[in-house]
Amino acid sequence: MKTFTKLAFLGIFAATGIIIAGATAAQDAPAKVADLEITSAFTKAMLPGQPVGGGYFTIKNTGKSDDTLVSVSSPVAGTVELHEMAMQGEVMKMRKLDTGIAIPAGKTVELTPGGLHLMFIKVKEPFKQGGKVPVTLTFEKAGKVDITLPVEAAGPGGHMHK
Hints:
- The protein has 162 residues and is mostly beta strands.
- The protein contains 1 helix and 11 strands.
- It is globular and about 45 Å long.
- The protein starts with a helix and ends in a 10-residue tail after the last strand.
């Protein structure tokens, strides 16, 4: 039963584009707020009727103080939550991060498929390849910044970090 559960779970995430495989283009221009630089933003096209989607990007903290991504909002979703996926034994588990995502001073944090990510909930219309998803990131110290996530093809292909 464990193997079936794991395979079913992975199948769901493959269908929603949360597993990575190939390289594609992402947001080219970095967004900056205070000592934070946001790059490599993207999301995946969604299947018709799919109520949730993921969002991904990289945050580089060039400053000497830690910061925290505390919330995200988007006009295209009812809510946007900060999530983490991690293996617990043989089971992949996803959980909401109520306290945000820490961005340590002098470090880079990647939101990637299968790891830290945004979860768009109650999406008004499924994301379509070639579209754009506007989001507002709110950091504890740096404040707010608007970014755009280009919508890439659905499925297991996706952005690869080097």
